[in-house]
Amino acid sequence: MRATKKQSLESLPSDPEKLKLIIMKLSSRVAALEEYVLLGRANKYGASSEKSVDQREMFNEAELSVVAESVLVEQTAAREAQSNTIADKPKNKAGRKPLPGSLPRIRIEHRIPAAEQVCGCGCQRVEIGEVTSEQLDIIPAKVQVIVNVRKKYACQHCESGVITAPLPAQPIPKSNASPGMLAHVAIAKYQDGLPLHRQETVLSRSGVEIPRNTLANWMIKSGELTQPLINLLDDKLIAYPIMHCDETTLQVLKEPDKQASQKSYMWVRVGGPPTQPVRLFHYADSRRGEVVSALLAGYNGYLQTDDYAGYNAVCAENTITQLGCWAHARRKFIDAQKAATGKTGRAGKADVAVRLIAKLYAIEKRIKPLSPTKKHAARQTESLPILADIRQWLDKTLHHTLPKGLLGKALSYLTKNWKKLTIYTEDGRLSIDNNPAENAIRPFVIGRKNWLFSASVRGAKSSANLYGLIETAKANGLEPYAYLRHVFKALPLADNVEEVEALLPWNVSLESAAIK
């Protein structure tokens, strides 16, 4: 060990300037590693929220100058105003919340025994009022069997043959699964994250033995059944000039030319007119550019994504304008903020970025209910000055920050994506971040933690269809079980495009999709 240390020392350059340069590089490397250690500790033991930590100390870096001081003053004033507002605001009453009035009520009357209805003086007690209290009751799922009786007819004169009443088209021919059963299994898995093997156990408690392989086959065929609807939704999505995209990993066990441990991807696209929102999922075996090309074929307009480079070439070849995501940019500064706070206990440069970005989001929250025209006007007068402050601070801070550190990487991300991050101010219909896509893909990510993988490519594609149909129904204000049940019942009977279009979520009323 001593010989190794001696050799290492002898290998160091004798030139003081070169030695100083090596020390500086090593110090930078140590500082970067310390930040990652602090960030890991903060992520493991600290709060998981990305909200800014409470900063009570003054900024001590001279280079923060005017921007930092103005932000600090504004934030202090905002906290004081908020404290006064909270003090004046009446507190929410503690205790049990009332049960929804829309729920059906069953009245159960309780009377005292007949012997106690006679008073001690010998007179009969008279009812003078009542005291009510409510209890919430749940009736477990009702399992029943639908018996389809097909009448048979024959002519008694010519005896030409027997005619049997036809069975209406079923979602899965020659299957004993009704539309309601298929909708129940689909919602339990794709909305509630209940794997099929657990559903098998739940059904067995009701005396119904259905193997998970059968349940899986039902879901595959149900997803394939909805393909005509998915095609129409895709047309609607492509026709509207604003779209959000995101992707996440998926493991498929039986995939051609791939090992079971290799990752595939589930993509999500969010768009459509405000009154006809669309959420579609797409399975692909990779994250290559040709997948993006297929998903965006025929699309022209705005595309909002994260910083994945796979979108760049497709957007450059077509008339597609890329938008950045301020949520991703903010997240990187939050990481730098956690490391800096854990390291020094003081506010730092990352806090300036987080607070300036928070001002952008405050504007978006306030103008959310406004029309696109008014949103655009508000962004031009309010958001653009804040963006100018961020750009000024960015240019001043970038060249005085460790490039490989968390703050340096956050600044680099902001610089590289600046144009994409500011385009949202050009049109009131655009969003400040890619949260619509991230919110749409969240049920899939949560469900994946339970069912872990798809067994086959057919299963993955069918899952994508069902996820898309459920999320689109929710976005259009429909109860997903009622909508799927309606679709599974009516879609097999549809003979033309018009009848399929009638099943699109915005063409289905809540009454027609209600549970019957």
Summarize the structure.
This protein is 51% helix and 9% strand.
What does this 3D model show about the protein?
Strand 1 (152-154) and strand 2 (162-164) form a beta hairpin. Among the domains are: 223-324 and 434-507, Nucleotidyltransferase, domain 5; 326-426, no CATH class. With 516 residues, it is an alpha/beta fold. The chain is extended and about 110 Å long. The strands form two sheets. Strands 3, 4, 5, 6, 7 and 8 form a six-stranded mixed β-sheet that branches. A two-stranded antiparallel sheet has the order 1-2. 51% of the residues lie in helices and 9% in strands. Helix 3 (65-88) packs across helix 11 (349-367) and helix 10 (326-344) packs antiparallel against helix 13. Mean pLDDT is 82; it is low at 52-69.
